[in-house]
Design a protein that fits this description.
The protein has three domains: 5-50, 2-Layer Sandwich (Uridine Diphospho-n-acetylenolpyruvylglucosamine Reductase, domain 2); 55-166, Uridine Diphospho-n-acetylenolpyruvylglucosamine Reductase, domain 3, CATH 3.30.465.10; 170-264, CO dehydrogenase flavoprotein, C-terminal domain (Enolase-like, domain 1), CATH 3.30.390. The protein is built from eleven helices and 14 strands. The protein has helices spanning 12-21, 34-39, 75-80, 82-87, 89-95, 101-106, 109-115, 122-128, 142-145, 212-220, 245-264, and strands at residues 5-7, 25-28, 47-50, 60-63, 66-70, 132-135, 139-141, 146-148, 151-152, 160-166, 170-177, 184-193, 196-202, 209-210. The strands form four sheets. A five-stranded antiparallel beta sheet has the order 4-5-10-6-7. A four-stranded antiparallel beta sheet has the order 11-12-13-14, with helices on both faces. It has a three-stranded parallel beta sheet with strand order 1-3-2, with helices on one face. Strand 12 (184-193) and strand 13 form a beta hairpin. It is globular and about 55 Å long.
C-alpha cells in the first residue's frame, strides 16, 4: 500500500468538491472493489473520499408502488429489511446471494451499481425492474444507465444518491454463480408488471442488458417451454476461463426458464 489523502465529507456537495479539486480522486463506498484494486496496485489515487458519513445516501422507504433505497445501503440490509422482503422479495433474494457474509455486510448497492461489474447482481434488478437511478444532479433511467464494461452514464464525480425500484406483481431472479466468488456467470431477473414482462440479464456480456427477444416471447406466452424456440446469438458475449460465449448464451435461456418457473409457482 502507499500514502493517500483520506477524506470523510458529510454532504454530497462537499464530496463532489473534494473530487473536483483532486488530481486523482476516488470515492469509497463499501470498498469491495476499490480496496482489492489498491492492494493489487491497479490504482493509485491521490485522494480517497469516504461516502459513509453522508446522511442523504442512507435510508429505505416504500411508497406509491416504489421501493426507494439509499445508495449506501449494505447488501445485508437489503436482504434482511422486512418491508423489502414483503413488497419486493426478489430484491431481498438477490441481495442475500451476493458474495459471502463479509461482502454483504460491507458492500453497498450504490457502489455496486456505480462500478458496473459485468458479473454483479444488482444490474439485473436495475434493468429487469425498470429502476430509476438518482444522482446529486439528475435522474437516469435504468435502461439508459449501463453502457459498456465498467462504463455507465455517470459523469466524472457524479454520485448515486438512491435507486427507485417499481414493485412488480411478481418477479424472480436466477443465477449460475461462480463457485468461488459467487459472482454471476449469468444471472437473469424476470418481472411481471400486470402482464408486461421485463427481463434483465447480467454476467453474459460486458454490461447488463434487457433481453428483448425473450421478453417478446414471454409477453405472448409466460411459459418456460416457450423459451425453447428463442434464438439467442452469443455475439458480443463474454468468453473467459469460467464460460465461453456460447455457454453463456445457453445459460441465459436456462436461467430465464427457471425464473419463469419460479414466477408461476408464486
Amino acid at each position: 500500500m502507499y500514502r493517500f489523502n483520506y477524506h470523510k465529507p458529510s454532504s454530497i456537495e462537499e464530496a463532489v468538491s473534494l473530487f473536483n479539486s483532486s488530481d486523482d480522486g476516488f470515492y469509497l463506498s463499501g470498498g469491495q472493489t476499490l480496496i482489492p484494486t489498491l492492494k493489487l496496485g491497479l490504482a493509485s489515487p491521490v485522494d480517497i473520499i469516504d461516502l459513509s458519513n453522508i446522511e442523504a445516501l442512507h435510508g429505505i422507504s416504500v411508497d406509491s408502488g416504489l421501493v426507494s433505497i439509499g445508495a449506501f445501503t449494505r447488501h445485508a440490509e437489503v436482504a434482511e429489511h422486512p418491508e423489502i422482503r414483503r413488497v419486493l422479495p426478489v430484491l431481498s433474494h438477490l441481495a442475500g446471494r451476493i458474495g459471502d457474509g463479509q461482502v454483504r455486510n460491507l458492500g453497498t448497492m450504490g457502489g455496486s451499481v456505480a462500478n458496473s461489474d459485468p458479473a454483479a447482481d444488482y444490474p439485473a434488478a436495475v434493468i429487469g425492474l425498470g429502476a430509476t437511478i438518482h444522482t446529486g444532479k439528475r435522474t437516469i433511467s435504468g435502461d439508459d444507465y449501463f453502457k459498456d464494461l465498467f462504463e455507465t452514464a455517470l459523469e466524472p464525480g457524479e454520485i448515486i444518491t438512491r435507486i427507485d425500484y417499481p414493485i412488480p406483481d411478481r418477479a424472480a431472479y436466477r443465477k449460475f454463480p461462480n463457485p468461488a466468488s459467487r459472482y454471476a456467470v449469468v444471472g437473469v431477473l424476470v418481472a411481471d408488471f400486470a402482464g408486461a414482462i421485463r427481463v434483465g440479464v447480467t454476467g453474459a456480456g460486458p454490461c447488463a442488458f434487457r433481453a428483448t427477444g425473450i421478453e417478446a416471447v414471454l409477453n405472448q406466452n409466460l411459459d418456460p417451454d416457450a423459451l425453447k424456440v428463442v434464438d439467442l446469438p452469443d455475439a458480443g458475449f463474454n468468453s473467459d476461463l469460467h464460460a465461453s460465449a456460447e455457454y453463456r448464451a445457453h445459460l441465459v435461456k436456462v436461467m430465464a426458464e427457471r425464473a419463469v418457473t419460479d414466477i408461476l409457482a408464486l
